[in-house]
Design brief:
The complex is a heterodimer of chains A (235) and B (224). In chain A, 84% of the residues lie in helices and 0% in strands. Chain A has 235 residues and is mainly alpha-helical. Chain A has a domain at 155-235. Chain A starts with a helix and ends with a helix. With 224 residues, chain B is mainly alpha-helical. Chain B has two domains: 2-158, no CATH class; 176-224, no CATH class. The longest helix of chain B has 41 residues, at 48-88. The chains are: A mainly alpha (235), B mainly alpha (224). Chains A and B meet through helix 2, helix 3, helix 4, helix 5 and helix 6 of A and helix 1, helix 2, helix 3, helix 4 and helix 5 of B.
Chain lengths: 235, 224
């Protein structure tokens, strides 16, 4: 009885899943139009617009390739269209697999195992959609409140706002890196060599070749991954 | 001029909400279309108690992140960046790193209109790349992954995120070395002493602890 996956991969499901992917795409296009228009009105150089866009486009290639491979794994578990939608919007592969598994567990079976019928698959799909909606509804409703919070915290002091934003990012990446450092081995090597190579590039290479700045993070990522793979092969 | 810049910023914020709020809420709703179609077409409506149980289990695991992540990431993403990032996901490994790099490369100061435009364009660029690769994976993914050497698959799935986390941290550490040491040692130290601390609590402590520490340094510097 594997016909639930046949339905999960059917043309209709692809089309229905495309609706949500299209909204994510549409939102990005609308914001790009708005950014371009605002830049012209406020006399902000076009270079800021085009360079920033290029940075996003290029720097994301590395992590997006990671998503590409993970998605292939997810496709075998929940079907192609669902994997496509879920990884095109909020929620990474582990989050989606957890939600899909909880759906199966709530029905008393294992994901894709014996007794995983279409009805159970529906529970998995509900669980993923409900989980993703958590972030979307909170940001959809309360983002203006977060802006007020930031304004209050910065107290109208632009210099402090810069330091505050930097500290926020350091807090986020301190947290994200600590996990990899504690995991040790390849993960720690990737994080530490990524950090050191980025510092070296920005401090020593970019001042001589300023154009390299926009590729710096991509290069640091490649070097970090390279070191981790070497470590894995040797260790 | 000052007043003009103020007006542009106010308009930017208004338009950000105008685009972002409906699209995020609509996407939350459209994500249910496939499952509603499935149940309607094949008459396989599940028992609602089971759905509620599954929802309760996911909320117990991720519910705190629905609130903690938007709050903690806000100062790094800005307004339009928050709408974009929480619709398209991949926040730590793509959106925050590209936004930060765009500000650095274009010499934009956080909080200014130029910074909002730079981070928005960078995040949009990264979303286009992500959508391109997920769509490609849907079409040719299985065949491509089967043909790739094992070490490339392993490098991309296991280490790409770790390396980009490290690289972004390294760049910020050049600007704020003392806060950087604090931001890394605090989660490491706390996690070593309290091994069962929930992730959401550790994020709050790391982000708001780093902000408080930066404030302390800022005030002390102002006094000298």
């Amino acid at each position: 009885m594997k016909d639930y996956l046949e339905i999960a991969n059917s043309g209709t499901v692809w089309m229905l899943c495309a609706v949500t992917v299209a909204i994510a795409f549409l939102q990005a296009v609308l914001y790009m139009i708005m950014a371009k228009r605002t830049a012209i009105k406020a006399n902000i150089p076009n270079e800021v617009v085009s360079k920033s866009f290029r940075i996003g486009l290029i720097t994301a290639i590395g992590p997006a390739l990671g998503v590409f491979i993970v998605m292939v794994g997810l496709m075998t578990a929940i079907g192609g269209p669902m994997a496509w939608t879920r990884l095109s919007i909020i929620g990474a592969a582990p989050t989606e697999l957890t939600a899909a598994t909880y759906g199966a567990k709530a029905a008393g079976v294992e994901l894709g195992g014996e007794g995983y019928t279409m009805t159970v698959m529906a529970v998995s799909w509900f669980a993923m959609a409900l989980n993703g909606a958590g972030w979307l509804v909170v940001t959809g409703l309360f983002t203006p409140m977060l802006e007020n919070l930031r304004e209050k915290m910065s107290g109208g002091d632009p210099k402090w706002l810069i330091a505050l934003s930097g500290a926020c990012s350091l807090g986020i990446f301190g947290y994200l890196n600590h996990g990899n450092i504690m995991a040790g081995h390849g993960h720690a090597v990737a994080a530490i060599s990524g950090a050191l190579s980025m510092m070296f590039l920005v401090k020593c290479i970019v001042p001589k070749f300023p154009k390299l700045m926009e590729y710096s993070l991509g290069l640091a990522m490649l070097f970090g991954m390279f070191c981790a793979v070497i470590m894995e092969t040797l260790g | 001029m000052e007043n003009n810049a103020h007006n542009h910023m106010a308009e930017w914020k208004r338009s950000s909400v105008f685009i972002g709020a409906p699209t995020n809420l609509i996407a939350a709703a459209t994500a249910f279309i496939p499952v509603l179609w499935l149940c309607g077409t094949y008459d396989c409506w599940p028992d609602w108690n089971i759905v509620l149980t599954a929802w309760g289990m996911t909320a117990a695991s991720f519910g705190a992140f629905y609130i903690v992540e938007p709050i903690s990431y806000y100062a790094a993403l800005g307004m339009s960046g928050t709408y974009l990032s929480f619709l398209s996901g991949n926040i730590g490994n793509m959106r925050v790193p590209v936004a930060a790099l765009a500000l650095d490369s274009t010499n934009s100061q956080p909080g200014t209109l130029q910074a909002e435009i730079a981070s928005t364009m960078a995040i949009c660029g990264s979303i286009i790349t992500n959508l391109f690769f997920t769509t490609l994976a849907a079409i040719v993914g299985t065949a491509v992954v089967a043909a790739l050497p094992e070490f490339i698959v392993s490098a991309l799935t296991k280490y790409a995120a770790a390396a980009i986390f490290g690289g972004t941290f390294g760049n910020f550490a050049l600007h704020y070395p003392i806060v950087a040491v604090f931001a890394l040692l605090v989660p490491l130290g706390i996690h070593m002493y309290f091994t069962t601390i929930p992730a959401w609590l550790l994020i709050i402590i790391s982000v708001f602890g780093s902000m408080a520490f930066a404030r302390l340094l800022y005030v002390m510097k102002g006094k000298n």
